[in-house]
Amino acid sequence: MSKITMKNFPELPYAVEEAVNRLRININFLGNDIKKIMVVSTMPNEGKSFVAMQLWRQMAQAGTPSILVDLDLRKSIMAEKYGVVAEGKEEIKGTSYYLSHPLEIEQAVCHTEIEHGDIMPNTDNVVNPSMLLESRRFEEMLEYMGEKYRYVLLDSPPLNLVSDGERIGNLCDGAILVVRGGETPKAMVKHSLLQLERAGCPLLGIVLNRVQGAGSGYYYKKYGGSYYGGHYYGSDYYYGK
Known about the structure:
Elements: E1 2-6, H1 14-28, E2 36-41, H2 48-61, E3 66-70, H3 78-81, E4 84-86, H4 95-100, E5 110-111, E6 117-120, H5 130-133, H6 136-148, E7 151-155, H7 164-170, E8 174-180, H8 186-199, E9 203-209, E10 230-233
Parallel strand pairs: 1-5, 2-7, 2-8, 3-6, 3-7, 8-9, 9-10
Antiparallel strand pairs: 1-4, 5-6
């Protein structure tokens, strides 16, 4: 496996760090059958990539073997945003490259400086990844990761833009929906829930991100009176996609 370094990993405010930690703990309570988790949003710029990255980091730092898979194959910014660079002269072979080439999975998975944390970034965006995500190779990749790691976190494209998220969700044990507080219309959130239901992907909870006026406490909310499991907030701070 390649070894990578992430040069742009921000230090989080205490409130945000603690919110992610609570999310991690609550996921642990869901039981051993929950392994492959899709982290998704309704629209772009709600913070789902940030939540996926920070949740993965905390799980790995807690000693839980975890992998973060970049499945935003059309518009991924993970490698650029976090300054992902390979140690030595090895070229990083990411998700789309692995799915489209006869490559061993160990050549696409990257070790990080976090002992129990691996990443499969996406370094080559593609115009239409649908065939890659519908392939048997993609299913086998997730099956392999589910056996090797305790948690497989899948950073997925927004549900409202393309159908990729539904295909990914169909192969997952559950989804975390990231919602930007005060921005995402309730009707669109409800539509995302219907998409997850159609894909057969249970909703594990909602992360309510960038909540105004939440202070340092936790912010719990119901959308349209419906209960969605656990609710968490990402505080007034906002980091990324």
